[in-house]
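Quick one: structure tokens for this chain, please?
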Amino acid sequence: MGDDGGRVSRLADRIESIQLGMAGGLLDHAADLLAEQRATGGELRYLASRLSESLRDVKRVAESRGARLEQTDSSSGGGIPAS
């Protein structure tokens, strides 16, 4: 994030935590809905849309954390090479 554990980083960490928690809750809901085997097409389309949004958020979190790891490794002189 650029401010090494400062206010912006803490806010980003909180937002990421919320996004990951929501993804977990959505996965639980998806499992329940799919286990019923009576979900309508509309319910499944809605679920697929929410899962897609959640996956996009989780991907963004993973990319952000990966970028931070690369910055940390490059500043310490070792670690993961940038791709």
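Residues 9-62 form one domain.
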